[in-house]
Specification:
globular; WD40_rpt; 5-stranded antiparallel sheet; 31 strands; WD repeat; mainly beta; WD40_repeat_dom_sf
């Protein structure tokens, strides 16, 4: 069974003439087209950050601010721009009264080639969209607009055509923000869980939205219906998820038995996992070489997972300062391995790996962590390509990096600096240090090394 076939007596996508997952429905409005259809398109006729059909530009909340370094004056409300110090010569998006009032949770760049729109979800319940311009010498960053999702935002992703984005919220709702050239910005409910939604991904090939939550559910949504077209039970709460057709990878958490990695092949049978990694790895082994396919890639709670652009495998990382490279094909399972990262030189301090971002052109990847550092890695040569310097407050205290992403061109790397609440309320700094930094990447620091 595959995307494009029906499942038994009921169709994947609801009533009608037996339409399957991705198949065109022949009788009702509840079906959908595989790779077709146009759900959640443009509103107001204008592109986000581009002139609208009526000649008007997109709503602007603040004027562009040029950045030539990590300096800045005082922003509105007494919040200073330049609250963090970076030896990486990276650029800090200026703060003002419209900036995030709580920690960031996620960032994502527009998938449209040539677009440098950046969205950021925050625990203050808002998704903000910035337009970033770079001429190779100087940045301009402008907050285009924001939308209130009514509850803390735990994850964000773009629609494939860049006309809108989606947000997973702690209010149990999935939201869609269709970018508009009019003044009012609203977020539409497009999915629901019985607990906070931890991860959200748009699947272009089937025009479906995937959500995974702390209610142990993985759900797929047709945006034209209020009910999921597929509702799957997970072994535990979703800790992270990534989807790149035809694969979906969900890492779950909770008890030891609930902590698993589930791999789905969406072209075959989306209902049944292709592989479940649920066995504890041997305690005396540091690498994953020659382990059975069902062995857990890491021993501790998963924090982030990312599928490589060629579909050959994925990277998953955990709170124990480890990252694991896993391959989908059975003949490559012997190449699986894990490595230590985001630790001090003596391995006495271990920091959580908060996110993995894949470089779409080279297949190399970045990790960011609670040590306030970003690192670029080459999985094929098994070496680190570049290590960033820790991001610190003006007091000298290190600030965690909680999220990151490469833009489509691969020349800009955005990362969100925020308190991650790992030390509880007592560890929260007095000043709000939530900010977004941008690193201009070069080929010599991100291109794979020849072996």
């Amino acid at each position: 069974m595959s995307f494009g076939t029906s499942f038994g007596s009921s169709s994947f996508g609801g009533g009608g003439g037996g339409g399957g997952f991705g198949a065109t429905n022949n009788g009702g409005s509840g079906g959908f087209s595989f790779g077709g259809g146009n759900t959640g398109g443009n509103t107001g006729g204008g592109g986000f950050g581009q002139p609208a059909a009526n000649g008007g530009g997109f709503m602007q909340q603040s004027q562009p601010q040029q950045m030539q370094g990590n300096q800045g004056g005082n922003a509105a409300g007494g919040l200073p721009f330049g609250m963090v110090m970076s030896e990486n010569n990276d650029y800090e998006i200026p703060r003002d009264q419209n900036s995030a009032q709580d920690s960031f949770s996620s960032v994502a760049w527009s998938p449209v080639q040539g677009s440098n729109l950046l969205i950021a979800g925050s625990w203050d319940g808002k998704v903000r969209c910035y337009e970033v311009q770079d001429n190779g010498h100087q940045f301009q960053a402008q907050l285009q607009a924001s939308v209130d999702c009514g509850a803390p935002v735990l994850d964000v992703c773009f629609k494939h055509d860049g006309t809108g984005c989606f947000a997973a919220t702690a209010g149990n709702m999935a939201k869609m923000w269709t970018f508009s050239s009019s003044g009012q910005q609203t977020a539409q409910d497009v999915g629901k869980h019985d607990a906070p939604i931890r991860a959200i991904r748009w699947i272009q090939e089937s025009n479906l939205l995937a959500t995974a939550g702390w209610d142990n559910k993985l759900r797929y949504w047709d945006l034209r219906s209020s009910q999921p077209v597929l509702d799957l039970q997970l072994p535990g709460r979703c800790d992270c998820m990534d989807i790149k057709f035809p694969y979906a990878v969900v890492a779950t958490g909770g008890t030891e038995d609930e902590r698993q990695v589930i791999i789905y092949n969406l072209q075959n049978n989306p209902r049944v996992p292709e592989r479940v990694m649920n066995e504890q790895p041997p305690s005396n082994t540091t690498l994953a070489n020659n382990r059975p396919a069902q062995t857990k890639p890491l021993k501790r709670q998963y924090r982030t997972v990312a599928i490589f652009p060629n579909g050959g495998g994925f990277a998953v990382a955990s709170i124990e300062g480890r990252c694991s490279i896993q391959y989908f094909q059975s003949h490559r399972l012997k190449d699986n391995f894990a490595f230590k990262c985001h630790r001090d030189k003596n391995n006495k301090q271990i920091f959580s790996v908060n996110e993995i971002a894949i470089h779409q052109q080279f297949g190399t990847f970045a990790t960011v962590g609670n040590d306030g550092m970003w690192n670029f890695w080459d999985k094929d040569s098994k070496q680190r390509l570049k290590a960033g310097q820790p991001v610190k407050m003006q007091t000298g205290d290190v600030v965690p990096i909680v999220a990151c992403a490469f833009n489509t061109a691969g020349n800009l790397f955005a990362y969100a600096v925020s308190y991650d609440w790992s030390k509880g309320a007592q560890g929260c700094p007095n000043a709000n240090v939530s900010t977004i930094m941008i690193h201009r990447t070069t080929e010599n620091e991100i291109k794979p090394k020849t072996r």
